[in-house]
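Morning, I've got a small favour to ask if you have a moment. I owe you a coffee for this, so here goes:
>
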Amino acid sequence: MTARTRPLPAAAAPAAALLLLAAQAGTAAGDEFLPREGPPFEAQVLRTFRREDGTPDRWEVRTLSGRRTVLASEIREVRPRPADAPPYPWEDFEARLAFEDPAHGELLLALGLEARGKGMEAEARRAFRKALSGDPEGRTAAGARARTLLGHVKVDGRWTVPPGVERAPEERGEPAAAEGPSPLEKVLGRMLARRRSENFLLESDWLDQPSLGRYLDTLERAREAALAFLAEPPPVGGTRVVYRLLREREDYLRALDALVAPAMAAGDGNGEAARTLRLYRAGHLARTPGEPTCIAWRTSEDDVEDRAFLAHHAVHEVWRTTVPVGAREPDWLQEAFAYSVLNDLFPDDPCWCVSTGYGREDRVPPAWRNTRTWGAAARALAASGKALAFQDLAVMDLNSLGFDALVQAWSVLGVLREKDGNGTRAFLRKVRRGGEQFAALKETLRMDPGDVDRLWRSEMLKRR
């Protein structure tokens, strides 16, 4: 492959050029991507995802900072990597790490510091942990240095891990000990891989341990970001949430019928269970009543989309922790909260947020697939006069919230936060504790629905 430049059309998605690129690149090549906005970056193409007409839509790539998704519509130009280029830094790291013995602590520390200097934090921490595995107590100079580089501190002669010190993403959580077959394993008739953290347990029939670690890391980060958004401490005595992840839809439906449907039907005399089950069967995730357990099947082959789908649910779980049983939860506010948390948390993965519609039957409009464009979309709504009145938006149920309404809800919450961050958090707290939303709005922000409309439209139009 020669190092020539391929310019991409400035208008629509660069179908022909990108198709040629994908065919030549395969899954092991890499290129320099030149975005329409922002600096260029080198990336190893791991997978290419295509539209229904066969043209590339996005790539899953590996960069110095880890995996990310790149949208074809955001790329101005692609410069193929020369065939004789040296290995990627992460490939070089893997080759060197594999041949270092844990007893060679100083060499592993040097390798880890080199990786950290290149921005490969996850790899650096793996090298430090391998150095520490040869001296778990940190008695040698290399072991003590590895502990320090991992963020551990020595208190009264004992090494401790301070709160907030995060593990490397692929090491989040621990493989769960082998136990008797779980209810899901009895239904499916096969063993599942397991991994757990303090807050989550994952069971999967298709993910390996490193992949489960990435999923756990995403769930933990989403939970931490949601609590930070609310300015609340972690709940005391919280229950570990169990996610059972299935590859095939048929298995999902079998598990739904065997594990969720009977629990929902018990004591249901008004048909609510039947309506909810229809939604579960049309979607990707089902919750078991009375248990912190969810059964989910993959939304797509894209690891980012799949993890984001679960992260969205995890943020909703944080929201629900203080909501009294039977309280009316405004759907616009729940969704605005979830999108606000996750759009802020994953700014480098712009397509995951609504790329699958979270199980909805309607197709996601292309304009909403890139969350970086949501601000412009909200401004266009305000300018067009087609936006919903806040009074109407605030009482819509989830099934009635189209994608225009979701973007509007997200931007309304953003405007309220910018106007009065503390007041908005107080508003969220009151609603999450069962308060009526319009009364809470008046009490905390001194606003009625008309005031929200005027503020939102004014702020949107200022940004045009």
